[in-house]
Amino acid sequence: MAKTRRVCHLLLRFLAFAATLAAVIMMATSHETATIFTVSFEAKYTNSPAFKYFVIAYSVITVYGFLVLFLPAKSLLWQLVVALDLVFTMLVVSSFSASLAIAQVGKKGNSDAGWLPICDSVPKYCDQATRALIAGFIAMIIYIILLLHSIHTVIDPLLLRKS
Amino acid sequence: MAKTRRVCHLLLRFLAFAATLAAVIMMATSHETATIFTVSFEAKYTNSPAFKYFVIAYSVITVYGFLVLFLPAKSLLWQLVVALDLVFTMLVVSSFSASLAIAQVGKKGNSDAGWLPICDSVPKYCDQATRALIAGFIAMIIYIILLLHSIHTVIDPLLLRKS
């Protein structure tokens, strides 16, 4: 039973690692050059602070997710992992939300602010950024599940009454 | 000692509640009418999906924060509060990040996407949204501190070795 749970846990962590890695690669390699009237411009993730934040945050959690895969089952560092999971999940939630907000403006624009959608001019760039956000969303959900599971495991009514 | 900690904990929760309430009120009441050339437009939070999300998420956590203030110290529901704290803190981090990303575009614009800053046209609206974001940031930090403290309290090496 304990072994099955351990395998499930590692599998979820591996999936999260793969999803964050895919999100970073897709977001970092997304670029497209478009010409509107006579002005040529290149759409890439460095144009938007939110997308830069996405790439940095997801890179950090990719490295972290990779390292945690090699942590021995009996290590006392697992205590620290719960706190680190929390901090890194916050980072992922934050960068995902910021990027989604910007992507929404890129897709739909904002008529009140006079911001036009850009996805008609750079459809390939938009598609790839969307795929990066989907991978990022999957990773985020897995990390939230891992975190809720950790909290469920470590919170024991007896312990709470003691403290 | 336990009583001092309990008072500190309640004080932090009250501050978080006050900050989320202030953030909701400031964001929801922010509006300004501006005339650019001959076009008149009203800037208000409902113009942006991210700001609407901010108001909804912070309203939810304001109600939650208010209810938790009246939870008895010995209640077994405190176990549930740790998990709820986690979910609601994620919600707050997410809505704050999305709103900050949009506010950044509103303030600085994005020359690559051709999105012009709007804060020069509606400075009062921008100032009030900024104040709402500052209150939201304070609330977010307090909830993260509460969450890290809960995790620190409930994670006991002995328990982890048992599980």
Automatic annotation (TrEMBL), chains A, B:
<keyword id="KW-0812">Transmembrane</keyword>
<feature type="transmembrane region" description="Helical">
    <location>
        <begin position="77"/>
        <end position="102"/>
    </location>
</feature>
<dbReference type="GO" id="GO:0005886">
    <property type="term" value="C:plasma membrane"/>
</dbReference>
<feature type="transmembrane region" description="Helical">
    <location>
        <begin position="132"/>
        <end position="155"/>
    </location>
</feature>
<dbReference type="InterPro" id="IPR006702">
    <property type="entry name" value="CASP_dom"/>
</dbReference>
<comment type="similarity">
    <text>Belongs to the Casparian strip membrane proteins (CASP) family.</text>
</comment>
<feature type="transmembrane region" description="Helical">
    <location>
        <begin position="12"/>
        <end position="30"/>
    </location>
</feature>
<dbReference type="InterPro" id="IPR044173">
    <property type="entry name" value="CASPL"/>
</dbReference>
<protein>
    <recommendedName>
        <fullName>CASP-like protein</fullName>
    </recommendedName>
</protein>
<comment type="subunit">
    <text>Homodimer and heterodimers.</text>
</comment>
<dbReference type="InterPro" id="IPR006459">
    <property type="entry name" value="CASP/CASPL"/>
</dbReference>
<feature type="domain" description="Casparian strip membrane protein">
    <location>
        <begin position="4"/>
        <end position="141"/>
    </location>
</feature>
<feature type="transmembrane region" description="Helical">
    <location>
        <begin position="50"/>
        <end position="70"/>
    </location>
</feature>
<dbReference type="Pfam" id="PF04535">
    <property type="entry name" value="CASP_dom"/>
</dbReference>
<keyword id="KW-1133">Transmembrane helix</keyword>
<keyword id="KW-0472">Membrane</keyword>
<keyword id="KW-1003">Cell membrane</keyword>
